[in-house]
Amino acid sequence: MKKLTLLLFSLIVFTSCLDDSYTPNYTYEYLPIDEAITPDSLTFGEVDTIHIKYSLPNYCYSFDRIYYETQDTTRIVAVTALVNLDDDCAEQIIQEEYDIPIMASQKEDYIFKFFKGVDSDGENIFDEIIVPVN
Q1: Cβ neighbour number for residue 112 with a 10 Å cutoff
Q2: DSSP 8-state code for residue 54
Q3: In whole angstroms, what is the distance from residue 88 CA to residue 99 CA?
Q4: Distance, CA of 37 to CA of 30 (rounded, Å)
Q5: Tens digits of per-residue pLDDT, 88-102?
Q6: Which residues fall within 8 angstroms of residue 37, CB to CB, at 6 or more apart?
Q7: Domain boundaries, the chain
Q8: Cα–Cα distance list, 124 to 32, 58, 59, 61, 120 (Å)
Q9: What pLDDT, on a 0 to 100 scale, did the predictor assign at position 89?
Q10: For residue 103, what pLDDT band results from cuts at 50, 70 and 90?
């Protein structure tokens, strides 16, 4: 019984020392793709590569992942960045590149829509490239 009481007391002391007030101050943001280099065509059943270039506005931004959404024969592509809101970052554009492997799993042409930003009405802008499949 003494061991159980000691264990419960230790657990209460330990959990009371945890600081629940800290929450990381960050957000995620989609970044425009500056340039997308696609193959002239894809071969059904084979893997090819799309080469993209994008820019991070400053050192508060870091690459998180590629947003890749499939809608029928259309593929929507964007860069997702993690933005640290706690740091004071000087404006310095950092250009980066990323290769996306693409498996041609359909016989229809692929329509790639690369995110280019948002217009003054808040609508997404895309650069659309059609890549035929052999």
Answers
A1: 20
A2: E
A3: 30
A4: 19
A5: 888 899 999 999 999
A6: 50, 51, 52
A7: 24-131
A8: 10, 22, 25, 20, 10
A9: 85
A10: very high
pLDDT in tens, 32-90: 999 999 999 999 999 999 999 999 999 999 999 999 999 999 999 999 999 999 888 88
The label of the residue with tokens 């929507």 reads 76
Helices of type H across the chain? 2-16
Residue of 123, 110, 130, 117 lying closest to 33 (CA atoms): 117
CB contact at 8 A, 28 and 81:
yes
3-state secondary structure of 60: coil
Q: Would you state the structure tokens that stand for residue 51, as one six-digit string? A: 């080469």
